[in-house]
Amino acid sequence: MAKLKITQVKSSIGSTKRQKLTLAALGLKKLNRPVIHEATPQIVGMVNKMRHLISVEEVN
After folding, report:
1. What is the C-alpha to C-alpha distance for residues 16 and 2, in angstroms, rounded to an integer?
2. Burial (CB count within 10 angstroms: exposed 0-12, middle 13-18, buried 19+), residue 39
3. Secondary structure (3-state) at 58
4. What's the domain range around 44?
């Protein structure tokens, strides 16, 4: 299964509580600190909802 490298590139200030909780669920704590996750349907869904705050790369 593919892996995704997810990096937060914009601040969550001004975001809703639900969006902040989604960032926390992805493991994103600070700007420009990447995390790597398997590309499961749950993770892909969270990434699609947070597309405006994060950048995503596929890692082999």
Report:
1. 30
2. middle
3. strand
4. 3-59
pLDDT in tens, 7-53: 999 999 999 999 999 999 999 999 999 999 999 999 999 999 999 99
> In 9-53, at which residue ranges do the beta strands (DSSP E only) sit?
35-38
Q: Which two tokens stand for residue 50?
A: 């947070």
Total Cβ atoms within 10 A of residue 14: 7
Q: Tell me, what CATH number does 17's domain have?
A: 3.30.1390.20
- Return the SS3 of 21: helix
> Could you give the CA distance from residue 33 to residue 45 in angstroms, rounded to a whole number?
20
Query: Global pTM?
Result: 0.91
